[in-house]
Amino acid sequence: MKKLLLSLAGLATCIACKNEPKTEEPVEMVEVVEEVRTPEQEVAYAIADASGLANWDKVSEVAFTFNVDRGDSHFARSWKWNPKTQDITMMTAQDTLTYNRATVDSTSMDADKGFINDAYWLLAPMHLVWDKENTTLTVQDTATAPMSKEKLSKITLTYTDQGGYTPGDAYDFFYDDKNMVKEWIYRRGNVSEFSMVTTWDDYQDYNGIQIASDHKAPEDAVHLYFTDIAVKTEE
So what's the pLDDT on residue 4? Predict the structure, then answer.
């Protein structure tokens, strides 16, 4: 809904002479657009708010290491990210690369794909409201969580087949009555069967941003987790 606010700007009255008429400056028209959210968007915002969305504008740097254990195999990749400038540094055992997301080229594209994946795992609840274009949201009030079998609520974020590195994917977020994500399902290409399902555990507060640092798959087939998490904010 759009509301039109009329503000009387600078009503000037000349008092030097009582016979001199008053003069008025033109009325300034200010247009304010009020966001109208669907019920699904209201749920999305509630989940993002529970994860600290209101504090995100203060964040000046995020650092973290993304770890994956599969059996005896271990993979780790570290990042430093300035959300305001989109300057990113990737650090691995083999290489260090700094780039800006506004100028991704052939030398930084693979790193950027890795960053999108790892940062999505870190802050997925925020993407429920950040990713508004080429997405749809659906909500189920009561659903059975795939791992714990608890009765939770579910919101599904589906990407269209346009844009991004992996278009057409879908994510089912299972959240509790405090709007905290407890488990999720990743469905590549929006197929009915899941590609991956994990827990969302070990929430901690990082300068007002709630992050789940631990994600386990059924039977510990895969263990994804974050270390060295640091969130810097502006004073």
Answer: 32
